[in-house]
Amino acid sequence: MAQQIYPLNVGVLGATGTVGQRFLVLLASHPYLRVHAIGASPRSVGLAYPKAVKWKQTTPIPKAYRDLNVSACEPGAFAGCKIIFSGLDADVAGDIELAFRDAGFAVFSNAKNYRRAPLDHLAVVRQQQQELKKPGFIVTNANCSTTGLVVPLAALERAFGPIDTVLVTTLQAISGAGYPGVPSLDIMDNVVPFIGGEEEKMVWETKKILGSLADTSTGFALRDEMRVSATCTRVPVIDGHTECVSVRFARRRAPDIAAVRAALSAYTCDTQTLGCPSAPTQAIEVHDAEDRPQPRLDRESQAGAAVSVGHFVLLVNNVCLGAATRASSTPRSPAHRDSLLSASGGE
Ligand SMILES: NC(=O)C1=CN([C@@H]2O[C@H](COP(=O)(O)OP(=O)(O)OC[C@H]3O[C@@H](n4cnc5c(N)ncnc54)[C@H](OP(=O)(O)O)[C@@H]3O)[C@@H](O)[C@H]2O)C=CC1
Ligand SMILES: N[C@@H](CC(=O)OP(=O)(O)O)C(=O)O
């Protein structure tokens, strides 16, 4: 394999949005990825980034982006980028991401459009490249609420065997709806007990992520035998989705609390094993205090890359672990990093 040259140039689509802004903050200090081009809607094209964006982060716009102009989301404008991160509105992500894939880019997306594509799986990227006889591919992040849920579920299954029933009720932050999102008169002093499409996504994506690979040509196999029931609500919190979870194990009675705490604390995720720069040091933070986790106190813990759990109420930062952190989690170890990035066309 040819020598990789670092930093690798990357592009961010939807760079002005809620997720796009997080991408730019994370990538500004990334050890071997550098933002080379950014894209957004025709409304923003041609403007310097600070003019185009309604910046909502608590830290200032990183210097590197202050003179960067927003491009149209067309492959030609991203020549020189090895990897594309997408925080595009799902209404437009489908066609745009496909155009980038067809132009040979490695696309890592947060939009829902290709989550059900059979070959949407990091483990079958090489297969996808061979089948299509092209280097480009699309891999998607899961729904943000689902992401928070599956981490502790995976930890519990690793320790106690299969789960057959999951009941979850979410209290989701308003940033999950993008910008400007839910009107203030709907959400202030209120709870909205419905988020369009979210419950279906949580049910299906949980069964996908906790499932397995069928084989490298058909992609994933769902956990069809698992019963998942989700109720999703929107609450007046800016960032951080809280989820109240109950589970039942298929082959055993409920383990005691001390064993559950130990299993959650001991869990390590793949990004930790691979040494990704934005991986958490502790994948699941188990709280002792009865009144934790709380969004305001716990969402920025480990730069938003961990899931916080206390008496199986969990908190996941929807825009970090739920979106930008996970998509940009490339491995730190040179060997792992080079093999993953070579699939992305880096050389
Ligand atoms: N917010 C969250 O917690 C999560 C979001 N997601 C998903 O990530 C994606 C981004 O979400 P979010 O950041 O919240 O959304 P926002 O609404 O905040 O941002 C959308 C982005 O898409 C761009 N865009 C809109 N229309 C077009 C167009 N016609 N051509 C090119 N670009 C366009 C916007 O550019 P402009 O500013 O110029 O209009 C903006 O940069 C969505 O698919 C969402 O479902 C996934 C997980 C979590
Ligand atoms: N639906 C999530 C955010 C989101 O955009 O999810 P998805 O990428 O699955 O459409 C929320 O409202 O909090």
UniProtKB/TrEMBL annotation:
Alphabetical keyword list: Amino-acid biosynthesis, Methionine biosynthesis, NADP, Oxidoreductase, Threonine biosynthesis
UniProt cross-references to Pfam families, sorted A to Z: Semialdhyde_dh (PF01118), Semialdhyde_dhC (PF02774)
SUPFAM superfamilies listed in its UniProt record: Glyceraldehyde-3-phosphate dehydrogenase-like, C-terminal domain, NAD(P)-binding Rossmann-fold domains
Amino-acid biosynthesis as UniProt keyword: yes
The keyword Protease is assigned to this record: no
InterPro entries named among the record's database cross-references: ASADH-related, Asp-semialdehyde_DH_CS, Asp_semi-ald_DH_pep-lack, NAD(P)-bd_dom_sf, Semialdehyde_DH_NAD-bd, Semialdhyde_DH_dimer_dom
Pathway(s) this gene product operates in, as recorded in its UniProt entry: Amino-acid biosynthesis; L-methionine biosynthesis via de novo pathway; L-homoserine from L-aspartate: step 2/3; Amino-acid biosynthesis; L-threonine biosynthesis; L-threonine from L-aspartate: step 2/5
Catalytic activity reported: L-aspartate 4-semialdehyde + phosphate + NADP(+) = 4-phospho-L-aspartate + NADPH + H(+)
GO biological process, any: threonine biosynthetic process
Summary of the function given for this chain in its UniProt record: Catalyzes the NADPH-dependent formation of L-aspartate 4-semialdehyde (L-ASA) by the reductive dephosphorylation of 4-phospho-L-aspartate. Mediates the second step in the biosynthesis of amino acids that derive from aspartate (the aspartate family of amino acids), including methioinine and threonine, the latter of which is a precursor to isoleucine.
Entry-linked PANTHER family: ASPARTATE-SEMIALDEHYDE DEHYDROGENASE
Family of the protein in this entry: Belongs to the aspartate-semialdehyde dehydrogenase family.
Record protein name field: Aspartate-semialdehyde dehydrogenase
Organism: Exidia glandulosa HHB12029
